[in-house]
Amino acid sequence: MKEKVEIRDHQREMHAYRLRLGLSAGFILFFFLLLVSRFFYLQVIQHEHFKTLAENNRISIVPITPNRGLILDRNGTVLARNFSAYTLEITPGKVKNLNKTINELSKYVEISPSDRRRFKRLLDDSHSFESLPIRTRLKDEEVARFAVNNFRFPGVEIHARLFRQYPDGELTSPFLGYIGRINDNDLDKIDAAGDTANYKGTDYIGKMGIEQSFEKQLHGTTGFDQVEVDSSGREVRTLSRTPPISGDIVTLTIDSKLQEIAEKAFGDFRGALIAIDPNNGEILAFVSKPGFDPNLFVEGIDSQTWQALNNSPDKPLLNRALHGEYPPGSTFKPFMALAGLQLQARSPTDTISDPGYFELPGQSHHYRDWKPGGHGLVDLHKSIVVSCDTYYYGLANLLGIDKIHDFISQFGFGKKTGIDIGGELSGVLPSAEWKMKRYKQKWYAGDTIPVGIGQGYDLATPLQLAFATSILASDGIAYKPHLVESVRNSKTGKIEKPPSAFLYKLDIDPNYLADVRSAMIDVTKPGGTAPGVGEGASYEVAAKTGTAQVIGIKQGEKYVASNIQERYRDHALLIAYAPADHPRIALAILVENGGHGGTTAGPIARQLMDYYLLGKLPQDKVNQEKIDAPAD
Amino acid sequence: MHPLIRRLHRTLSNHIDSFLLVCTMILIGLGLAVLFSASDENLTKIGSQVVNVTVACVVMWAIANVPPHQLMRFALPLYAAGLVLLIGVALFGEISNGARRWLNLGITRIQPSELMKIAVPLMLAWYFDRHESALGLKNYAIAAVILLVPVLLIARQPDLGTAILIASSGFFVLFFAGLSWKILGGLFVSGLASLPILWSVLHDYQRKRLLTLIDPSQDPLGAGYHTIQSMIAVGSGGLVGKGWLHGTQAHLDFLPEHTTDFIFAVFSEEFGLIGNLFLLFLYSLVIARGLGIAARAPTLFSRLMAGSITMTFFTYCFVNMGMVSGILPVVGVPLPLISYGGTSMVTMLLGFGILMSIHTHKKLVKT
């Protein structure tokens, strides 16, 4: 109806609309012709110009990898450095038949079976567009021989690369760690940290130890070259350069000579040793035996060698100092003694009578002393000097587990020390709450008794033991154990020191600390459990020995070392500090299956202290061994 | 033929415009071929683009089967929802590449500005259709408000490319609705006059893009880089191009965004001027068909929609190719039916679905 009324209007509207459509079509035609003329201008008239630009004049950004920072010991000895070497590298994505290519390559450059295995492992872990080394450290004549035949091998190139080298090898691996090729996991972390640009051109990253925890400082800042490349991607000339900034120089608190003496002193034993300066928490020596050669990992380890390391019963890849949890055994007793004194459970003069065992009232189970028949009348001093078990069974029972836990945790047991490298375990300092959480079981009175002598649920890492000893040595002042003394910025030369390691001061009566110290000094005198440690020394040593059971001994049975396979023998432990009056070194030693702490760990401690305090090298003994060796 | 198959065939093709469909499919096929080259022969990317195309085709078919008067019903709710989402983006949107464009709905992230590409012209066409009997100046003013609110919200994100596209799609509706020449002239003059003001509200990077258009060599590694590299690609393509898969600019990674906004540079480098002319020819066929459908559309709503969709399609083509060949500044506008990406593919084919619906339902309206 409406239509009828407005029919003329409607027609006029339609006419206007179609006119506008027509105009639009013209508009479109105009702009499309504009495009056509632009295309004609670019593609026909200016074609030669752009063709040259495309073929010859490309700007590409090439990253320049910075030199990784050096790692030095406290005296400036280089522990990790870089060397430049030629490598023969294959980009798998650009090579059709890898095996054939490698076989062909071996005509010009020596490629050993282990090189092949290592390459295969790299291949599995990498992307096909990455350039992977098949041979490192090429000799000059090998470089020359390959260069002449380079044209036969598309996708194969020689590069001059910087390699990480650890001159002391196995000696420094426990704390330095090592670097290895960046894998997908590392890439994710780099991305998450927003460092992607800075890692362009970087192939390696710190995987463990200082190399890992100080990666940021050691890596440096990547530089860039702006270069012209031709159509095949070859560089023609450099337009501008932003030079890279080398990584910072990290100086450690480690004394590499002391480290070497400690490592040698272990001989063929497995175990760990940590030496700390109790006045500031600086770690002087950090041993885990056996170790491994970190240089193997730098160039990419082949699977056979890796399997051998990983499956070895000696567990060389296990960092015993950080990651090995052992019962602290009798080295726990000085801390228990302090707990008893400070919490007023026993006075220094209180004596117990030791029949050779301890019984809980109403129970027939015998908690045995290590000495059959017992030590007779025992006070605090004697309990440490002769390492009486019964004294501490009773003390543990008097205190109860939660009091023990709360007091002794002040010495760092049961929690990470916070050392400046990763991978640390926290050990176990049990409590009723811990047992409920861990085993969903309530704590029994019987669980407390072995804790008194550092057995039962008690576990500590050698690092924790050394930390606790350093607190004991400094009369209750806790410094965080650390390995890095300073970081020197390679650009500004500014030296940055880590924040003060001071943690807290324990609230313990100095008289009690003196009581425990005098007992620990007598441990190293005739009549103590480690007389060898103090014998003939010009300084006084405070120490405590320990043994940690590897297998349980049944009630009524006797532990006879010679009857037991070597690997099931007790672990030997020793904590010590010296000079006893003004301690400069505190240490904890663990010797796996070493039997008694005084006999195996004692001589190690003594060699270290002699060198550190007196500068005396354990030369006589080394010479002796050298003379003896051929006769074997 | 089996009657069942015949019926199925009829159901499927009843509302499909075969001319438009064939042109579209040739363009999409060409797009997949270029994408194969631009993505360094990445079959996963091709696979996901095929999925995008399939989804978009289903959307096109479904929309083509909805008669235009039913489509009108979606105008208001779609526009309102789009507006709410845009405000949501402004308040809680996620920032990516420095712009706040995405809204995380928990299940999926959406870019409400894409929805507006259809919702704004639909809303305007619906509005004019409702007031067809007496269109006065007041109606054009209200329409301008309907258009400007979402456009300003999107321009603020900032997403200038999308804002311009939506503004032009809305403008085309106003234009076809008969906005008087006087006003158009006035708009043009005042537009020129307000350019300095516009300049002052632009973001730094947007200004830089405009400046580098005048002289790309001013900032060869920054804002001018895209333009220089894509011009080199187009120019070095020459008359017949370097051949499929043989373009060096894209394959040596000199071209940025070479699967999405700059895919035309790859096409141009590999197929040369001949290829470009063929592509323009195909686009012209699609546009001509669209204008033809618009000319014969029975209702005001369908006339406005068909005209706007076709002109917007043209705008996409021109802006993208103009940007790649260096006569327009770099804005994020994909090359229709060729660029990699699901959203723009769906938006394009959805528009074509509306065109087909308008074309195939008019007999029904007449009877």
- Counting copies of identical and different chains, the oligomeric state is heterodimer
Count interface residues per chain for the largest interface.
A-B, 35 and 42 residues
**How many DSSP H or I helices of chain B?**
15
Find the CATH superfamily of the largest domain in chain A. Answer: DD-peptidase/beta-lactamase superfamily
What proportion of the residues of chain A form beta strands (DSSP E)?
15-25%
Compute the number of strand runs of chain B: 3
Radius of gyration of CA atoms of chain A, rounded to a whole number: 35 Å
In DSSP terms (H or I, runs of 4 or more residues), the helix count of chain A works out at 25
User: What is the string of SSEs of chain B from the N terminus onward?
Assistant: HHHHEEEHHHHHHHHHHH
**What is the 3D shape of chain A?**
elongated
Could you provide a short overview of the structure?
The complex is a heterodimer of chains A (632) and B (367). Chain A is an alpha+beta fold and 632 residues long. Chain A contains 25 helices and 23 strands.
Description of the structure:
The complex is a heterodimer of chains A (632) and B (367). Chain A is an alpha+beta fold and 632 residues long. Chain A folds into 2 domains: 61-252, Alpha-Beta Complex (Penicillin-binding protein 2a (Domain 2)), CATH 3.90.1310.10; 256-308 and 321-553 and 564-628, Beta-lactamase (3-Layer(aba) Sandwich). With 367 residues, chain B is mainly α. Chain B folds into 2 domains: 18-65 and 207-361, no CATH class; 82-180, no CATH class. In chain B, 73% of the residues lie in helices and 3% in strands. In chain B, 46% of the residues are buried. The model of chain B has no long low-confidence stretch (mean pLDDT 86). Chains A and B meet through helix 2 and helix 3 of A and helix 11, helix 13 and helix 14 of B.
